[in-house]
Every structure is written in structure tokens, then in C-alpha cells.
Amino acid sequence: MIILLNLDAGPSERAAVRAALQRQGLAIEESRLGERTAFWVEGSEVPAESLARLPGVERVVPVGSRSPLADATRVSGGRPVSVGSATFGGGQVGVIAGPCTVEDAGVLRDVARFVARAGAAALRGGVFKSRTSPHNYQGGGSSALRDLHAAAREVGLPCFTELTDPRQVAEVADWADGLQIGARQMQNFPLLIEAARTGKPVLLKRHMSADVEEWLLAVEYMLKAGNEKIILCERGLRSAERHVRYLLDIGVVPWLKQRVGLPVIVDPSHSAGDWSLVVPLARAAVAAGADGLIVEVHHRPETTRCDAQQALPFNDFARLMQDVRALAALDGRVVTGSPAREPPPLQAAAGA
Amino acid sequence: MIILLNLDAGPSERAAVRAALQRQGLAIEESRLGERTAFWVEGSEVPAESLARLPGVERVVPVGSRSPLADATRVSGGRPVSVGSATFGGGQVGVIAGPCTVEDAGVLRDVARFVARAGAAALRGGVFKSRTSPHNYQGGGSSALRDLHAAAREVGLPCFTELTDPRQVAEVADWADGLQIGARQMQNFPLLIEAARTGKPVLLKRHMSADVEEWLLAVEYMLKAGNEKIILCERGLRSAERHVRYLLDIGVVPWLKQRVGLPVIVDPSHSAGDWSLVVPLARAAVAAGADGLIVEVHHRPETTRCDAQQALPFNDFARLMQDVRALAALDGRVVTGSPAREPPPLQAAAGA
Amino acid sequence: MIILLNLDAGPSERAAVRAALQRQGLAIEESRLGERTAFWVEGSEVPAESLARLPGVERVVPVGSRSPLADATRVSGGRPVSVGSATFGGGQVGVIAGPCTVEDAGVLRDVARFVARAGAAALRGGVFKSRTSPHNYQGGGSSALRDLHAAAREVGLPCFTELTDPRQVAEVADWADGLQIGARQMQNFPLLIEAARTGKPVLLKRHMSADVEEWLLAVEYMLKAGNEKIILCERGLRSAERHVRYLLDIGVVPWLKQRVGLPVIVDPSHSAGDWSLVVPLARAAVAAGADGLIVEVHHRPETTRCDAQQALPFNDFARLMQDVRALAALDGRVVTGSPAREPPPLQAAAGA
Amino acid sequence: MIILLNLDAGPSERAAVRAALQRQGLAIEESRLGERTAFWVEGSEVPAESLARLPGVERVVPVGSRSPLADATRVSGGRPVSVGSATFGGGQVGVIAGPCTVEDAGVLRDVARFVARAGAAALRGGVFKSRTSPHNYQGGGSSALRDLHAAAREVGLPCFTELTDPRQVAEVADWADGLQIGARQMQNFPLLIEAARTGKPVLLKRHMSADVEEWLLAVEYMLKAGNEKIILCERGLRSAERHVRYLLDIGVVPWLKQRVGLPVIVDPSHSAGDWSLVVPLARAAVAAGADGLIVEVHHRPETTRCDAQQALPFNDFARLMQDVRALAALDGRVVTGSPAREPPPLQAAAGA
């Protein structure tokens, strides 16, 4: 960190800055920049704001990263994350697919079978929902959690589901293979710590208004709790635009890949908020280097109670998987979990 | 809700929409708008997205509010909230003041004495912090909570502190007079529900990227849990700007006052992120009709471990209280808790 | 400017940075910060990006302002701007009022008479409109410009109108007392330069997505063209919110007042986009220190072709002027142009 | 448009709405929606705000597009735009490349030769710059315009350059093959109209805070002026994020392709603001369906006076062109202008 004094700062100001830093036990070096005094301080958690309040301080310039544990994941080829038979990262592209919410066990099985045959790496489905309104459907809870587990096991896929309360973690960890932290809970730190402590893979969505530093610091909470099996998921940012629900930050994919070794996937469904844009966004994500996707798929979206507008019909999902394979192959990557399965027959056209 | 069909929609599309609505048990009325068919449906929680997926549907237009419980607070003069001797709303303006964080019991007592004499309505102080980084100071926890209680009692003020975990609620409710939900936890619904169930007054900050509907739906969760003692607090929105930390949405104050009966206060400290802007923002808030303020005050900000840049020095706080009194008086309002106290002597100038 | 090299930078990297700076004729000083080399360069227009591309450069940190001419306006008490009998700044608060657009000479006269009697400092009215759609009404042009001039002269007020094309400047400067640059043209630099060269007072609105540096650099273009009679006008920022049309950046008022000597006014009408929020926003602006307001006023908004939703009815404007006087008086300020006039009789209630 | 009255509206309110609509010469139909009265009005330019001010009106709901001319471009296979030998759209993908600014004729020729051999469809280069600061380099003007023309002719490519003033249009149209409107001038309507009237192809960048409707309405101005040769260019949106300069709205590409027939290209350079992210963003754009790219290329960015950080080195550009060809081929598209040229030899590694 650089602490730059202003031109008028004299011996007493210099002494005060020096004393404040020493009080915190920080090693400092005094220097000159042009006509000014500057101090150099090592350490990323210096209380910069306090220093900026000292008389004579013109500017405090942080240098270096605030997330050393996330930075460390980059060494030696990164940290691909395996969940059951699927691997995210390290040249493997995984697609997590399934309904928004587990509403009906039979419907879930139909979706699970289709996405598994089409090449999905894992099954998704919400059971403890975090709905904006208390008057909306709040999810199927514990019994839906068991349904999700059963459907995933039947088709041989691992399953992911979302957590919303630290008191749910033990139960969810019993039945799900991967734990999902929704965007709105990205800074629910007690929940992150509990989820991390299970040792299970955790998919951490970025909050729709979090910057990359805040996101990596949320990761840092889980790394500090001892869990490195973290999948980062970009799902779009809140913006003034209305043609998409959230603005997908496609640039964050390569930005993160340059800086951390954790897999980065993209959720085109919540970003678009409109199924007709899901395939192009998903293609863009893979072309930009994403290690995977999480996609909402449903064959009868008009019957669902949640997020119907963004659910991808079966045939579109099957075509998306073909596109993902082709795009991954351009970079010498493979789609995880897919080679062993035959492509599903396309359905007869069904409206949506 | 209006469901507008497109010009090409024929009998089968009309029948499908009708059937989908009936399946959900909704009363519908069919009508014509120009050349088109339209359906009118009562009820605010219609699954609009599912309907929009039906063939022939051009547009689904929600009409009316999604937060009926919040709307109901507006009748019969609103719902002023009393906390100890202080009242927020109903013509009374309350100022909650104190340090960002309870770090030292002696320092806290000094701040408490000063803000009480200057006319504050309540003491604030963080003990369970929700810090962006796990490497930053996480707060003094249970013992700091007791310090806060003691300092508040000594000066005869009620106290507010923040909650971050549903498992903390019982303990905090034992020692604090008002519970505070921080912006980042605005959609931590399990926490909201637990806090509401204590029956204590709850100060709910708006998330820095939440729109007003999302905010009122978070309120709706607490109203549904049976607690009407809710104080809304605007603290600024995330934006591209850097001259303030968060962009204070001053217009939301009158907008809310027109629509709900709950008190609305403003946090100029977190919005500005810079103490030199706190007083003008606070004045603007009261002039726009806010029922109060929550302000960070510290006489030695350069020694603190959190948010030093925005802490208001003692003398500036004393002058702010004078301004608040004058502004409130212009509208025939009074500052709650203040008349009985004599103004504190100004301190000798001390740097910041 | 500080150019910080990374830890690995050796003699050849240092030499390359030094050479690049010397090529640009910049005076540099080499220094050490901790284990690193740093260069200090004077001058605000160093091509920082080019330097950042040099091998071994970790970070380029600009220090100091990019707008020296704007900074210079702050000395010796600032630069109040007088337009006819009205003065903005220097303890005087001016309110510019009138219809969005000059549509009918008779209606304009009615509005002009009312706002003059209520204490407005100047009359506003659009004649060359910058409409988002080519299919919308584009303004009354030259004849409306003459109508505006006539109405203003009749009531003894100066008038302001907007420019959209450098080829209009001469004509508008013949008939208007103050030139207005709309938000969307804030970075239409040829227009700014032509407007500045007339020597007339220029009201420069901030673009709805411009940061403060971009705004001050637009000012800098006009200062460089030799015109110091510049009134800055904040009118709200584009955001994701829908309860107001643009989010008023109330904090920018004190921020600017601390840094530049030019008057700063606020446009609550375009920010709110809803007349019922105009008065509270206007009050907030004056309480935060604004040197004036620009407000759209119309007694029959339901008959207008532009921005009807935000037009303030006559009685509300008269009450707003009373509030402005009271708020200005709290700070020892006066409302410019108002003392000589008697308050207008309130109208019988008329719907809106 | 639907005008929905509130439940309390009686005969006099209905009559007033009816009268207001008739005064504007609009055909209306009265209907019932549930218990309420609704009016249906045809026409996209109804003064909705005025109607919303009438007593008894609860809500005015626009239905349908505001940009009928842009909508009409979609019929019969769209409107590919040809500029010299290059075509954008209709299955052809074109890449416009060149330096940010024409600073030196020799350097420009080197860049032109390289990008032409690598397969670029057109040469770009700024001569009349629209710089944020008046103290920054303002471009080479008329002589640089002639240099650009000469360099493009020498390598057999058409050239694009930016306009900033309606008074420049005739000169630029004499020397450039395609006219470029920069993001900041997207709503400089006099400039748009003059540019359109030349009949030359116009590349219209989206403003960094314009929504899609505003962008299409700017297009509408040019279509109304009689020019259909319009290329839309997305270059990123202003946001709170700092890891990219502007947030690329990748979803707008498919959204536009579904709605208008004009070519849509992407500028990854200005979005990223960092050359290391340009290639992934460019790949994402083509994978999402973009009809082309505009990319800043320079072999010695550290010597330039503008936007050095985002300039792509030669070898990276050559590899990008290979990626673009492979991605276009996945969809059965071709890269315009490229087949006839041999790939350029890669340069020896040169630092950046």
C-alpha cells in the first residue's frame, strides 16, 4: 500500500502517519515521490480508511490483491472440481441442467432422463427457494430434496440444489452432491461458512450487483473455512436494461480465468430471463472460455410455478449440447460426462 | 392482471389461456381491446411468466401492488415505531447515532454521552459485523453486545445493533432494543423471519441494488411474520459513480411516504462514504421528509478498524442536530428525544 | 502520476519506462517504494495507458485533477453567474421555471406571468427539442424562440432555452439570455465550444450516465473556449430503478461546491419524471446547498405534447417557492429576484 | 395503447379521457376489464404522459414498437450492408480493424497491410476525435483523413472513420467509405441526420447508457432520413464494474437479430479496455451471432497517444481472425473479404 502525503505535510504529519502504522504493528518504509513523502506498507488488510483520515494524507493507494487464498488456487494448473462423474475445469466443460424447481417427482424424472441422455453433467432443481415475495411458492422442501436425489441417482448424475439457511446445511448435504449458494446469499457469510465446512463442492453464484472483488472475497470465506471445491457461477448483473433480465458479464469469464484456478461457469437462464436468448448466451459463454453452464430446462414451462419464461424446451437443450461440444472441441476441450451417452431423439415440435 | 393476446390468436389459443387460468383456480373475465382478446385476472400472485409462455399471448401486464400487507400500513395515519423513549414517524424525527463498531467500551461510552446530549434518539454500534473480507475485523461479538447495552442504558437511550445469522437472533434480542438488518442481508429471508418473530422493532436497510418492490417484499416477509414495528432505511445504491460510495436515492423517501405507513429513515454515512458529505446528505434527507437518520459518529476516527472515512466528528454531529431541528420545525415536526437535553459544549478543533 | 514497477522489473524495464517518459518530454524522478522502483511524473495529461503497456509496469496511479481550469474557478469566492437580473451562486438561490416546451404563445404568457409573480429568477422553455424519437414533436423552432423572448421580456425575466446543433447557436444567442446544453449533448464538444464562444451564460446539464470527471471535463472545454459563465445542473442518473425516472445524485451538490466555484443547480423535474416527487426533491436540493433549481411548470399538463407527467401545477410551484425561501434563509441565503414581487394568489384547486 | 381507469372513475372521468383522445384525432375503443373501464388506442406516438395526468387514469400501457422503420428492415431476409468489397450480415461476418487514431502515416500503412493480409474487411482509424478532455490529443483532422484514405486504398480495403460535427460530414464523406457515429454522439440527432443524408453506410455505436429502445430510435432518425445502410455496433455499457471498462451486452446481439434486419457488430476493444480480454470477448460475440467486429490493432501500443491499453498486438489479431473463421463456419457463415488472402506470417514475440 502506498500512502502519499500532500505537498504541505511536514514533520508532525509524517510522524503521525508513522505512529499510526506502528501502532498496528505494520512494517513501513518512508520514501520520496517528487516533492512529496510517501510510505510503503506491506499487507493487504491495512485499515486504509483510518490512515486516510490522518492530517496530511493525500491519497492511500492499495497495491495487490485482497484475496490471497483465491490467488493461490491458480498455481499448478488450477483446481478443477469433480462432482460425482463430472468434472468442471481443467479442459472439461460441464453442463448442469434441470428444472427451476422440483414441483412434481414424475415431471422431474422426465427432465432428468432427457438432460442425462443429451449429455448433461449434473441435475439441478430448487427445493428450498429464496423467493422475492413471501406470497410466492416457497419450494417443496425436504420431500422435494429426496425426489431430486432419487431422480439424479436413477439417471446416474450428481445433483445440485440451493441452500438458503445455515440451519438447512446438514440436511441438504445428506442428499445433494453439490451445494448451490444463490446470488442473493453471496454475502450471507454464516451460510457460506457452514456450506464450506461440509467439504462438499459448492457452486457460488455472483450477486447481481457484486463486483469481482466482493465475489472473490466471498470465495475467500469458504477457502478460509478449508474448502477448495468451489465453482464460480456468473449469472448476470442488475442494470437499467430491460431486454434481458440481468446483463451477463461475459468478460468476467476470461478475467477470472487469468487470475484464479477455480472453475468458472455461466448461468444463461437467469441472465436472459427469456428462453429464446439462452442458447446464444450459452454459446458465448463457452466461446469465452467458461468451464460449464447451468441451464434451466423444462418440457412444459407453461405449467410451472417459477421462472417459466426462461426454461429451455427439450429440443433446444439437445441442440445446445451439440453446440457446446463443437465449441469446446475448437479449443481442444471436452464436454464432461457426455461421450458415453447417445443423443436423445428430438421431440415433435410443441409450441413454445 | 391483463393478459393481452396477439392479433393472430384464435379460439384454440383463447381456450388454452382460459384453461391455464382455471387450472390455477383464478377468476377470469374475457374482454376485447380493439381487435384483440384480453383477459382480466384478479390476484397479485398469478404466475405471469407461465402465462406468457402460452401460444398467442402478446403481453402480460401486472396491475396493482405485490405487497398488500405493506400497503395496509398506510391506513389511519401510518405506523410510527417507538423504541424506548424514541419515536420514528408521525411527525417525530429520530436520529440514531454511534460508532460503526463497538471496539472499546470506554470509547463507546464517550460517544454515547456525546450523542445523547446532542439529542440523538438511540445509540447504534456494530458487534456482529458482516465484513466483505474474512481477513477483516469481524466485530466484538457477545461481549461487545453487552457493552453496547450498558453504554446505552447509562445515557438513557435505546440501542440498535445488526444481526447477520438467524442463530444469533435470540441473544441479540435479549440485549438490543432495536434489531438492524444490514443491506446485504435484506433478502436473507430466514433471518428476516426470525428477527420479526421477536416482536422487537426492526430497522431494515435497503440492499444497495434492490428496487423498491424487492425492498417492500422483504418488508412483506416481516409483516407476514406478524411484526409491524418496521423502520425502513435507505442507504444508497450501487452505481458507476466514485465521488460517493453509494448513490443516495433521495426520491425514495417521498415515494415511500406516499405509499406505506412505516417510518422511513436515511443513512447518510454509508451512502457518502466520506464524512464531509454526511451533513449535506442528512439535511437533504430531512428536507425530503425522512422520519429520521442513522449516522456514524466518532471523535477519533483515525484509530478505528472499520469505516473511518465516514465517521462524523463530534462538533459536526452537534451542528447536524441543530440543522435537523430547524428543518423539522419548518414542517411542524419535532426531533424525538431531544427537547429535554441541553446542547453539548463544542469541542476544541481536533483535526478531522 | 506514480508509475509503480513490479518486483521483477530490472534495469532494462526501468530504462524503457524512463525512455518512454523522456520521449514525451516529461520530467521524471525515480524512487523506491519498499522493494520496488517507482517513477513520479508531473503533469495531468500523461498518456497513462501507453505507460501501462510497458513491460515491468505494475500500476499507473494518476494523482491530481484533470480539470485545472475548473479547479481555478474556486479561488476568491467562486464565480456566481448573473443572467439579467438574476444571480446564481454567491449566497443567491435562483429558480428557473417554465413549460417543458413552447407550444402556444398564450399559454406560455400565462405560465411566465405566474412564475414571475411567484418569484422565479428566469423563464425556461424548449424550442429546438432533442427528442428520443423522430416521430415525436420536435419543437416550435425559430418562431417559438421569438415567443419565448417576448414572454420573458413582458414579465421582466431573462430566458433560457436549449441548443442542439452548433449551426443554431448564433440564432439562439440573439434571442435567449442563457443557453442550455441538454444532458444528451453534454459531450457534443463542437456544440459546447460554439455555445461558449458566444460569451453568454451557459447552463450545462450533466449526462444521465456521466461521472463527475467527465462532467467537469465538458466544463473544461467551455472554460478553455474562454467562457466562465457556466451553471452546472444535476438532473439525475440513469439507473435500474423505476420509481423515479432518473436517480438524483444529491451528493454531487456538496461534492462540487467543495471543488469548483461555479454555481450548481438541480433539475428535480427530469429526475423525478413525476410531478408529485418534484417538491421534495427540490427541497432536498436546496437543503444540500444547491444554488438554484430548474423546474417545469404548467397549469394544464394534460394538454401538452411533452413531459406532461413531471410538470408542476401552479399552486405547487408557489408553495415550492415559499419552501425555497425558508430553506435558503436557514443558511443566510436569499432567493434571487424574488423579494420585489408579491406572492401570486393560489388558484382554485384544478384536478392534478 | 391501453388506458386503464381506476375503480372509482365515473362518467365524467371517462368523458374527459375520451375528449382528450379525440382532441388529438385518435381512434379509440372503450371496453371493460373486470370492473374497470379501459380504452384501446392505435398508434405508437400517443402522448401517453398527458393521458396519465387525467383524473381517473390508473395506468397507461404502451403496446407495440416505437420504431416502425427499424421493424420494417426485418422483412425479406434483412438488410446486409456492403461497404466496398465487404459485406456485413446475410451470413457474412466482417472485421473492421486498425489503430485507434491515425497518428503517423507510416505506422498506419504497416497496420493496414497487416490487418488486410490477416483478413480484415475494412480499415478503421480516428481522425476527428471526441476526447473527454480538451487537454488531450484531438486527432489529426483533415490531413489524417487523407492518410487513412490512402492507406486503405493501397491495401484494397474500404475505410471507416468517426464524425463528431454536422459541419464535417461533407468532407468526411468525400474520403471515407463508411461513416462512424461514436457512442457519445448516438443522440446527436443533427449529426445523425446529416450523416444519413450522404447515403453512405453508417456504423452507429450504442451509447454506453442507452437502452435498446433509445438505440433503435436513433436508427429510426437515419431511416427516416432515407438511409438503410446502417450497421449497429454494441460497445459495452457503463456499469459499476472496474474489471472491464464497459460491460459488453452480449445478449443484445441475439435480441436485435430477432427484431431488426440490420447487421449487428461488436466492439470488444472499447468494452474490455484491456487488450488481454479482447479475444475472448470477440469470440463470444461471433458465437452469439454477431455479423462482425470492430477491433483496435497496433503493433507498438506503448507509443500511441490514445487507448493504448486496448490495442491488440498483430499476432493476437491474426489468431483472432482464425478463431472468427472457425466460429463462423460452425454456423455456415463466412468471413467477408478474407478467402482471397493468405495469412500473414506471425511476428517474433514483442513484449506486450
List keywords for this structure.
four-stranded antiparallel beta sheet; 34% helix; 352 residues; eight-stranded parallel barrel; homotetramer
Helix and strand topology:
The structure is a homotetramer of 352-residue chains.
Chain A: E1 2-5, H1 11-23, E2 28-33, E3 36-41, H2 48-52, E4 57-61, H3 68-72, E5 81-83, E6 86-88, E7 92-98, H4 105-118, E8 122-124, H5 141-155, E9 159-163, H6 169-175, E10 178-181, H7 189-197, E11 202-205, H8 212-224, E12 230-234, H9 252-259, E13 264-266, H10 268-272, H11 278-287, E14 292-296, H12 314-330, E15 334-335
Parallel strand pairs in A: 7-8, 7-14, 7-15, 8-9, 9-10, 10-11, 11-12, 12-13, 13-14
Antiparallel strand pairs in A: 1-3, 1-4, 2-3, 5-6
Describe the structure in your own words.
The structure is a homotetramer of 352-residue chains. The first copy, chain A, is an alpha/beta fold and 352 residues long. The first copy, chain A, folds into 2 domains: 2-64, Phospho-2-dehydro-3-deoxyheptonate aldolase, domain 1 (Alpha-Beta Plaits); 79-335, Aldolase class I (TIM Barrel, Alpha-Beta Barrel), CATH 3.20.20.70. In chain A, 34% of the residues lie in helices and 18% in strands. Chain A has 12 helices and 15 strands. Chain A has helices spanning 11-23, 48-52, 68-72, 105-118, 141-155, 169-175, 189-197, 212-224, 252-259, 268-272, 278-287, 314-330; strands at 2-5, 28-33, 36-41, 57-61, 81-83, 86-88, 92-98, 122-124, 159-163, 178-181, 202-205, 230-234, 264-266, 292-296, 334-335. Chain A has an 8-stranded parallel β-barrel with strand order 7-8-9-10-11-12-13-14, surrounded by 8 helices. A 4-stranded antiparallel β-sheet of chain A has the order 2-3-1-4. In chain A, strand 10, helix 7 and strand 11 (202-205) form a beta-alpha-beta unit. The longest helix of chain A is centred in the last third of the chain and has 17 residues, at 314-330. The first copy, chain A, is elongated and about 80 Å long. The model of chain A has no long low-confidence stretch (mean pLDDT 92). The A-D interface holds A 209, 211-212, 237, 239-244, 247-255, 258, 271-272, 276-277, 280-281, 283-289, 323, 326-327, 330 and D 209, 211-212, 237, 239-244, 247-255, 258, 271-272, 276-277, 280-281, 283-289, 323, 326-327, 330.
